[in-house]
Amino acid sequence: MSASPKYEFDPLKPPPNPNEVEPAVMEAWRKWSAERHEGWEKSEARRNWKAENDRRIRELIEGQKAERAKVIPLRPPPAAPVVGGPVAPIPLKVLRRAPGMRMPGPIASKAEPEPTGLPFIDFDACQNTPPTRYIVRGLLAEGATSTAYGPPKTLKTTGIVDIGVHLAAGQDWRGYRIKEARGVCYFAFERQMQIRQMLRAYQIRDGFQRLPFRIIPKLIDMLDPRCVDLVVTTIKDAEQRHGLSFGLAAFDTWSKAIAAGGGDEDRAKDQNAAAANLRRIIERLPRLNCLTVGHTGKDVAKGERGSNATQGDRDVGFVFAGSEGVRKMSIEYANELEPGDVTAFEGEKIQVGEDEGEPVYAYIVARRTVAPGHVKRAAKPLTSKETNALRALTVAIRDHGKIRAESMIQRSVTIEQWREAMWKDGTIAKDYSNPRKFFAEVQTGLLAKGKIKMNENYVWLP
Length: 462
What we know:
- The chain folds into three domains: 1-112, no CATH class; 134-374, 3-Layer(aba) Sandwich (Rossmann fold), CATH 3.40.50.300; 384-460, no CATH class.
- Helices cover 35% and strands 19% of the residues.
- It is built from twelve helices and 15 strands.
- The N and C termini lie far apart (136 Å).
C-alpha cells in the first residue's frame, strides 16, 4: 500500500476551492485546520488574550456612562503558531470557514437612545423665562420680526436709517433707550445710493465714524431657503469684522425680496414662505430683529400692501404718515406693545458733496423734537360701498328722521330703517351671500372715518 501524500497549506492564503481540487486535498485541509485550531485553543497565547479581553469588557460595563457610550476597541488575538514553521497570523477568512470556529467580536455598548423628537420646554421650566430683551427699548425686541410701512414720501427709509445709526452708535433714539451699541445690516434692495448719501450726511452733521452699519446692495430672493445661509453668513462676517453683536437686519423693500424669486406679495403662500425664512434666520441669530419695509396700496385704510399674512407674522407693525413737513411714526399693531404714537419728526437737508459745481444733498431726520399732534393726516377716501351706504342714510333721515336725545339737535333714524333704505336702493344687493357682514363692514368704515355717529339703536349724521 502506497503512503498517502503529504499536503502543505499556507495559513496566509484562503482555503482551497472544493470545485477545483480533489476530495483528498479538501479532507487533508480540514484535518490540518482542525488540528491547528485545537492547538490554538489550548495555547498560552490564547489564554492570555482571553484574560485581557475579559478585563476590558469588565471595565466597559463598570465605567460606562451615557455620554461616553462607545465601543472599546478589543485587541486582536495574537497569531497562532504553525506546526513546523514560523509564527504567522491566522487569516480571518480561514477561521470563519473552519468548522465549529466562532470568532469573538467587539462588545457593543448599550447606550441610552438619544431623543429623536423636536426640542421642548417643560411647563415648570417656564418659571425661569427671562424678560424680553430690547435693542431699542419699547420698540424693537431681540428675536422678533417687525415691519414699517406707509404711503410714498412718508420718509420710511429715512426714519429706519435714523434708528439704525443711533443703534450702531449706542445712543438713545428720540427718548427710547438703547442700552448698548449693536450692529446694523441694511439690505438695500433699492435706492442703495440714497442710503449711502444718508450715512455720509450723519458723518458730516454728527461726526460719526466707523459705525457698525453695513449696507448690502444686493437683491436677494427671500423665497429661496438658501437665502438663510446667505444672510446669516453675511451678518456673522460683519460681527467678526466689527467685534460686536448685530441687532438689526432691515430689508428694504420687502416686496422686491418676494418678487426676486417670482413671488407675488398678494399671495399668502409667498408671504408665508418668505416669513418662514426670516424665522429661520432668527433661529440661528436669536439676538437679531428682522425688520421689513413696505408700502400701502391706493386705499391707505387697508394697511400694508399685499397679503395680510405679513401682519399675521410680524411681532410689531409701524406705520408712517404725513406728507408735508412733519411725519409721524406709530405702532399700528403689536404682540406685547400698546398701539399708539411713537414719535414725530421732520427731515433735514444736508449737503454731502458737489456734482459739476452743483451741491448734492441728502435728507435725514432732523434732531429737534416735534409733537405728534402736528402731523396732518390725509383724509381716508370713502369706498364706493361706503358712499352708497351714506347716500341711503341721507334718504332715510329725510323720510323718517326724528330729533332724539341721543342725536341732540340732529335728526336720526333707527339702524333697521337705514338697512331697509340700503335694500331699497340696491346698496345691499339681493344676491349677496352675507348681507349682514356687508352692513357691518360699511358701518365700521363710516364710523372710523367720522362720517356717521350711532349707538345701539340709532344712527345720524355728525
